[in-house]
Every structure is written in C-alpha cells, then in structure tokens.
Amino acid sequence: MDPVLSIQKLTKTYDNGFVALKGVDLTIRRGEIFALLGPNGAGKTTLIGIVCGLVRASSGRVTVDGFDIAENYRAARKKIGLVPQELSANVFETVWDTVVFSRGLFGKKADPAHLEKVLRDLSLWDKKDSTIRALSGGMKRRVLIAKALAHEPEILFLDEPTAGVDVELRRDMWAMVRHLRESGVTIILTTHYIEEAEDMADRIGVINKGEIILVEEKHALMRRLGQTRVSVNLTDRLEKIPDGLFDRPLTLSPDGTVLAFTQNGESDARDAGLARLLKSLVARGIDFSAVQTSQSSLEDIFIDLVGKNR
C-alpha cells in the first residue's frame, strides 16, 4: 500500500529549550487507521501540529501525498482534515455557517448536499441554525468533526476526539470513521482510550519523549508482546508445587487451589504448554476442574513499553 504521509527526521525545539520531537521518522499508508499512542507530553500534538501547518518544525521534512508541507503548503493542507482537542470555532456563528466557511477556506466550491450529509451523519442537521454557543459540549465536539470533514479531506487527524464525550457520540463517531476508511480516507488518531485503538486501528505507533519507539501492525504487536495467563483450578488443595511438575515457572494461589503460568507469543505455544501441564497433572494423579485463560490488552503492552523507556 502506497504511503500518503511521509515524515522524515522531524525535530522540534521550542523557544524555552524544550525538545518536543527528536528526529521522528514515520510513514502512514493510504487508507489505513493509524493510532498514535503516548503519555502526556510525549510529542503527539506537536507532531500533528507540524503536519497540519499549525507548528513550525525545527528541521526535517513532511510530505502529504507527495506535496512538501513547506514548499507546497496549500496543496498539502487541502488534503488534511483536523479535529483538535479544543473548540476552534466562532461561538456566535450557526452550525451551518461554520461548516460552509470551513469548506470555503480550502477553495472548495459550494456543495450543500455534502454538508447536509456530514451534518446528518453527525446528528447535527436539526441544529444547523443554532449558534455554537447554544450547543452542549458533545454537540460542539460534533461540530469540530463536521468542520474537519467539510472540504472532503483525504487524511483525517483526530486528536483525542472522544475525550470527555458521551457514549452516544463515541459510537456515532467510530461508525463514521469506519465509513470514511471504507471510502478511502486515511485516519490518524491519538487517544487516551486505548481500547478504542485496540478496536479500530490497523497499525499502532508509540511515541515517548519525542521519539517513536515502536510502529507495528496491531495484531502482530499483540502476538509478539502480549501475554496469556493460564490458570488451572484444582479439585483438591496442594500444599506446594511438586518438583518437576512443569517445564516453566508455575505459581500456586495462597489457598493452594489454582496453578498458573504465563505464556508469551502465539496461542499455539500457549495451548502446547497447557497440554503439557495437564498431562503432567494427570500422570501425578492431581485432579482439576477448570481451565481459564486471560490475554493481555493493548493497554498492558503500552504501559510496559512506556515504562521501559522512561
């Protein structure tokens, strides 16, 4: 899949000396959903700001669908939609006027049918004549999304799009994201709700202290770094783990009724390990009543990665 966004050796040092980005290299594929994860202050918003022309880079190069953002700013920016964290609209404007204005900013011809569809998809059509200041917080967030989609961008940045919003908006927005991806729009999101990245993203990138520490396919990442905890419920209590019972470390619960081990990597390895343990239990006459497995989440992997890079 060809790249739609290329970031090369990007750095940013602010006037106070704070180094926000340290030689970031990143390629985003056309039509994918890419989740950029990182703790507060990691550089996520600075990176998005540079790509969207809101922050000036100290050095490096960014191309958007082949257009350099420094040399061909208008052409590059026209391809990008941004949903920022904070409200960025004239609160005295109506919803309709603000999306019309946003479309016009990018030199797009008037297209009321497209704007109507965007507003209907976001459950804003009945609010089109309301001023933005009269809307609830959730509705204002919907307006930000509508503004970003008004000029039909090919790349959509979502910077913490569901922070503090209601469940209904979150559900509606992710349905729209899936629809946009199906139509060929590339989605790049940052989020503190890691379960959203786990559910939505094709690839995961992790940034910490201004550096990209990992970029990988989501499923490959979870297979490679994920862990499965396997627990076997015993029928009778054990005083201790018998010597030579298993070929890897086992734990015994305080009440002596649960044996457990942790398996990294593929499920095949987990299943093979479990089979060996059960065979050993049977051979020693140790009865068991149930087997349980629990898979580590993307959040567990993220916390571990960031912790190792502190």
From TrEMBL:
Gene3D superfamilies per the UniProt record, alphabetical: P-loop containing nucleotide triphosphate hydrolases
InterPro entries in UniProt: AAA+_ATPase, ABC_transporter-like_ATP-bd, ABC_transporter-like_CS, ABC_transporter_ATP-binding, P-loop_NTPase
UniProt entry keywords in alphabetical sequence: ATP-binding, Nucleotide-binding, Transport
GO molecular function: ATP binding
Keyword check for Ribosomal protein: no
SMART domains: AAA (SM00382)
Family affiliation: Belongs to the ABC transporter superfamily.
Protein name, UniProt field: ABC transporter ATP-binding protein
Organism, as annotated: Candidatus Rhodoblastus alkanivorans
